[in-house]
Amino acid sequence: MSLDDLVRPWVGIAKGHIETMKRMVSPPVTRMYPHEPAQLSPRWRGPLRLRGVMDHEPPPITDAPPLEFNDLMTELHEEQRIAPCQGGCPANVDARGQNALVAAGRYIEAYNIVRRRNVLPAVLGYVCNNPCEDVCRRSYLDDPIAIRQLHRACYEVYDREVRYPGHLASLVHRSEHVAIVGAGPAGLAAAYDLVQMGYRATIYEREQIAGGLLVTSVPLYRLDREVVTKEIADLAELGVEFKFGVTVGTDVTLDQLKVDHDAVIVAVGYSGGRVLPIPGHDAEGVWSAIDFLYEYCMGKNPKVGPEVVVIGGGDVGCDCSRSALRCGATSSVQAHVETREEMPGQAIEVSGAIEEGVILFSSWGPDEILVEGGKVVGVRLKKVLSRFDATGKWNLQYSGESTVIPCQTVVFAVGQSLQLDFLEGSGVEFDAVGRPICAQATGETAVPGVFLAGDLAMGPKTIIIAIGQAHEAAISAHRYIQDLDLDHDRPPPVHPPEYYLEKLYTSTPPDFEWFGPGGRRVHMPESEPQKRIRTGGQVELGWPKGDDHKEAIRCMRCQTQVCVACTMCARVCPDNCIDVQGYDTGYERRVERYDFVMEWCCFCGFCQDVCPTQTLSLSASFDYATRSRRELFYDREKMLREFSAPDELPNKDGLP
Amino acid sequence: MTRDDLPPGTVDTGEAADATGAAGTGTAPERLIPEGEYAAPDDVQDFLINIGPHHPGTHGVMRMVTRLDGEKVAGLDVRIGYMHRSLEKIVENRSYHQVIAFTDRTTDYLAAMHNDWVYCLAAEKLMGIEVPERAEHLRMIVGEINRITSHLMSVGALGLDSGATSYFLWCFNARERLVQLLEEISGARLTYVYLRLGGVIYDAPPGWTDRVREGVRSVIDELPSYRTLFHDNYIWHERSKGISTLSPDEAMRIGAQGPVLRSTGIRWDLRRDMPYSIYDRFDFDIPVGTTGDVYDRTEVRFQEIVESAKIIHQAIEDMPTGPILAKRVPRLPTPDPGEAYARLESPRGEIGCYLVSDGGMKPYRMKWRGASFHNVAMLPALSVGYTLSDLINIVGTIDPVMGDVDR
């Protein structure tokens, strides 16, 4: 045995000792109790707690006159008390309040609540694209509440019980006078707000009838004209003055309007049609959607060939293809560049079109219109490969495949164009594409006292967006007349649906029982496709008596950080340690019992994930530490108690 | 699979191991006590003793029926099943989301992130869910942190088994810092339930990535002193070198995987060879040993800590912003009828999850492949012929988690 063999073991051991001794003199890395309190992550998964429960309180109803409404909304946003349906609506219609009132049988109040923010409740009840239903938290459970169709139910009661000529008194009590150009939804909404503030409002309309696109473009089978007439008649009773058959620019100039009135709101919308400049677009038998629907809606029975091709996949495209069938076409083809799933039209419109026999050509774009003797004989379509390039910009790529569809009529539903001749020379500025420039929030233009409302300010979007902007234009006119700061007192922005629905999943019908009232959505009956094509009558027939109440009591009256007894937590718990019992009479809804067996909890946090109102949280607290297993049963009151340690609200950092 | 089926370069010889810094000389040192002294006298027959089910050296409720010839292990029979909780049957009665809570605690609870991960991989494959980039990076970071904590636990407990109590405490000290990072992001210290179908549940809190860099760096900086204390210690060499050697062919025959397989010189790691998630984007080495003895298995784990740290640093550098959960994952998924299998490299070797859907809300069948179950099955082949005190070390080097064996 060499000397090295003798020394080696001891050197190794000695090195280890030295290392240990070094560690002993250095400060400890681990925190020691009780010199330093334990630092827990705010996400610590401790006992479950509730931030609040729904109890014997009436559901919050947000009702305020136009000038105070924005303050109310800002306050609700700050306190996180806003319901998604109200926050997600561009006009902030209080759908939750409506549902609660309908559930209590108070239809008239419900109608008035909706009319606060939505000047034509029943009209929108027929034709809105219902952004509120897209964010409804009831879709966590099964289907969203039919908010749009409930507007219509309220209208029917109001119409039957309250509405008679002269049931409303004029609200005008000021001498200042505002002119509104265009009697479309935006113009009407602005006028309604202005008379509520007490101003005189006069609407100048080119046609002989008020309603704008609602009467000239929305087909009869979607919207009963009687409803429009009645609701606009209500506005006239409230003091809105109408001047029909006046074309601004020819009959009266904008400058003249400015002289005669204290402020001018321009809400003429995108009133012109648009036709794609492809070969053959000027042949006989080519229509733009606006012109075609105008002819159809105004009862002029446009002549269409037996075979019709509609270009465009939006709502207007569906309107055209379905209207064509009602004008006598035997076949109606709708070609659109989007895929079937990405069609911009509402699902209910598209499915209605398919039921009626419209043939969809998905991912086909128009190539040329075949013309013989100046008349359309067909359309050549080409297959679309992709719509966007790598950077996300609109860039159509075709595969080279093409097909010819014989037809006698082609309708372009590819957007609308502006007809703003009367604004030229007035000082209002235009951008490169020809759109008037204004501040979107206020509608303010380069000309003092001239405001834009609706589609002119927001671009051609939906009716409810136009109405939402018109409220702001009305406030702008008020603030201009009173010489106040225009930018002040504006509503919080409408969040994208993701804000409310970060946890919403495509709903698969659950197979478990929902407690108490409700159940799946009550579907509104629809007429037979062949019958409604023949008669041109309404598609949606309205609920039979009582069904509207059944639908309204499904509403959960969402409030943030308040348990609404949706029982979602009890369903996702892998250990079945939660039991929730709710009580619901429709109007009153409360959480009777919330039982939680802490002993079985595995702290997975699924309940916290799914809680639609962000009420539940696993808290970083040891307040309930106990030596007895029996005390690990928490009831409602115990769950509600404040804990010492703060906990984190679900973070939204990851959202784009 | 035999050795010839492996891609060239997978089976390592000593030279390559030296180049990557893997330790192990390949020769056993001279024993201090001559071997003959272990043998029983001729008139004493072999006798059976039970080790476990409640023995600290078995790392859980495992029972080893050991036939001893003097102090030498002449035969070994491993009895399991003391901790069976019927995971696979429970899963058939839970929705796809709820399963995640069970994979954490009913399987390998020392590497809970990896169990979540393999289940999510299988379920996402079944449902065709795409995971956002940021979520992939977060999964990778927490997975690798979890691998480090698991390895620290493993080598530390091995030190405890062989009498080095301070080494165990040092490892736990380092582990604690990393566990706190996991607690900070997920809210839990052991059973995280951090992954969700389509991503992860929480985004990183502000400054978390910096603290991860710092925490991992502090652990890596301490590793040389660990080496001085334990791995280079002559006593440990005496206890480990040449004990329970394993040849590559034998390793493949008995189904070795993970660090045990790599310690024999076979460079096989699912992260590199069958990359899942985004591992193919990162640069890291696969430490291997040469003789597959107790010393090499410990070394492989010890060096993997450094490689995990490399991955973590790269993933943090690379991490994009964006969503952390896939959009519109159903709360009650009903995948189309079909099946999916996902596998990944956990700290203990390959784990796999096989999911069958019949179109309903609950999995029709789930089969779990746990690494520890396969590792425990290797014990007789590894330990016969070595002494009883070596047996405890051998159990420590295959690092069994009994939750993963019985499930």
Could you describe the 3D structure shown?
The complex is a heterodimer of chains A (656) and B (407). Helix content of chain A is 32%, strand content 16%. Chain A has 656 residues and is of the alpha/beta class. Chain A folds into four domains: 48-54 and 559-640, Alpha-Beta Plaits, CATH 3.30.70.3270; 66-163 and 496-552, Fumarate Reductase Iron-sulfur Protein, Chain B, domain 2 (Orthogonal Bundle); 177-271 and 418-481, FAD/NAD(P)-binding domain (3-Layer(bba) Sandwich); 286-412, FAD/NAD(P)-binding domain, CATH 3.50.50. A five-stranded parallel beta sheet of chain A has the order 4-3-2-5-14, with helices on both faces. Mean pLDDT of chain A is 81; it is low at 502-517 and 650-656. By secondary structure, chain B is of the alpha+beta class. Chain B has a single domain, classed as Cytochrome-c3 Hydrogenase, chain B, CATH 1.10.645. Chain B has helices spanning 14-19, 87-91, 99-106, 112-127, 133-161, 165-186, 208-231, 234-240, 248-253, 259-262, 270-273, 294-318, 371-377, 379-383, 388-398, 402-406, and strands spanning 47-51, 54-55, 60-61, 63-69, 72-79, 195-196, 199-200, 338-346, 349-357, 365-369. In chain B, the strands form four sheets. Chain B has a three-stranded antiparallel beta sheet. A three-stranded antiparallel beta sheet of chain B has the order 8-9-10. Chain B has a two-stranded antiparallel sheet with strand order 2-3. In chain B, β8 (338-346) and β9 (349-357) form a beta hairpin. The longest helix of chain B has 29 residues, at 133-161. Mean pLDDT of chain B is 84; it is low at 13-26.
